[in-house]
Fold this protein.
Amino acid sequence: MSKRFYITTAIDYVNGQPHLGHAYEKVISDVIARSRRSLGEDVFFLTGLDEHGQKVQQAAQAEGKNPQAYCDELAAEWKSFAARLELTIDDFVRTTEPRHKETVQAILSKLHAVGHFYKASYKGFYSTKEETFLTDKDRRPDGTFDPAYGEVVELVEENYYFKLKDQQQWLIDYIEANPSFVAPENRRNEVLGFLKNNVLEDLCISRPVTRMNWGIPLPFDKDYVTYVWFDALVNYVSIPAAHGDPTIVRTLNPQLSTLPPSPSAPARPRGNEMEAGKPQLSLWPADVHVIGKDILKFHAVYWPIMLKAMGLPLPKQILAHGWWQKDGEKISKSTGNIVDPMAVIDEWGLDAFRFYVVRELDIGPDGNWTDAGFQARYSAELANGLGNLVNRSLSMLKRYRNGIVPAHSNDLAADAGRITQETTAQLRACKLQGALQSIWALVNRANLYVEQTAPFRLAKDLAQAKRLDSVLYTLCECCRILAVLLWPFLPSTSGRIYAQLGLGGSPDKLSATAWGGLTEGQQIGEVVPLFPRKDQPTK
Ligand code: MSP
């Protein structure tokens, strides 16, 4: 059983509204997952929902609903959101599932048994909205707390704490010795700066049930539930555990086996991985956790410390993306400054949405959505660039050669080979925007080739028949290679290009980019515009 490439996203708060930021994170993760599959790797892609905590409990109460029923309703919406984005997920975690709770409790039992926790009384300020205790360091110069914290109340409370004080130095050393552990580099510097300039406070990992009971009970004290972030981070290992991941199962035994067996089943069981009814996938350590910049501290500080305490290896990379704004302002439901990804997809198609968010914003910096920018890219790069290339190449083949592929030609083989290599290197490095730029170098090269070779003129001169064959072969072969390169980004467009070329199967393996894949004599399919122009009135 070989280890799969394991990629995760942040798990979204179930009570939030799916918006552009959530869609962006899931799309870039899906592009990474698909590109690894295209590179020939076995991949496991996980996303899901964060369902516990005070905010969910309060939101359910406000609607007069039992929190579980409330979560179940919302989870159905989030799952259909994932389906609309055509995410190639292998599982979808909900933190209220027994299979997740079981691992959280196993970990808590283990860490408690070996003395990582202590109980103490704390008097301090607490933000319900952010579910976090605040200190004087969080005050603004005028002494007040940022309104982003919502209502701040003073509490005296006994709780369990996770000792972090002795953990700082090894983590600094680790991040320094492993430059790609936190990416991009400015985020790595941010984490190092934080660790070097602050003394880590111990982490409060419990909430008393008297204040908040919508959480996973502490296995060693029934008066407490688990702090929602401790619970949520564990999703990255609870799902591998449910799939029988050997590293996790070995490390968490006997704690895992003392708990009731999980009723869960894998989302996509695969014959040879089932052993006596028990799924077994080798997933841990994760290859990449894709997250937003706002939750970097949880992933690059608390999570590695939790894993080390459990005795598990650290993930290979934490990849933090930036935040989207719309028209230069924060996305906010209350001010109505939102982008509804579903409305965009309904109007322009899923691939246009996926293209825009990945092409517009590199993974790292913040981005700005404008409708005009979206439409400009749609029209210039998709309709006039890619769409026009495919349409005119295939239409000419129909017109001049009855849609039958002529003899091989190598006219643009060298350009296509170089661009494929560049794209592959970018994909391996999760440089998705750069990969699209490389792919468009081939789109532009092939469009330029049409202008340079002028096949419409060659067609008028019978003496140029062989030259025309060569040009038409080159153009159709470029379209075929583009379909393969584009599959991780624009899966349905890439499938349509393949179908229009009359090819069966899916363009989902980068190994198919070798020049010369189109065979002489092959009959192409029906030619249909890929990206209808929106600036012209539709009939
Ligand atoms: N539940 C926690 C994550 C737990 S992970 C163990 C959470 N949920 S969230 O719903 O608030 O955010 C989910 C993801 O969406 C985060 O990675 C966050 O950065 C991302 N985004 C939320 N708004 C965003 C933008 N405006 N732009 C880009 N991504 C943003 O945090």
The radius of gyration is 26 Å. Confidence is low (pLDDT under 50) at residues 260-275. Residues 10-13, 16, 21-22, 24-25, 50, 232-233, 235, 291-292, 294-295, 323-324, 331 surround 5'-O-[(L-methionyl)-sulphamoyl]adenosine (CB under 6 Å).
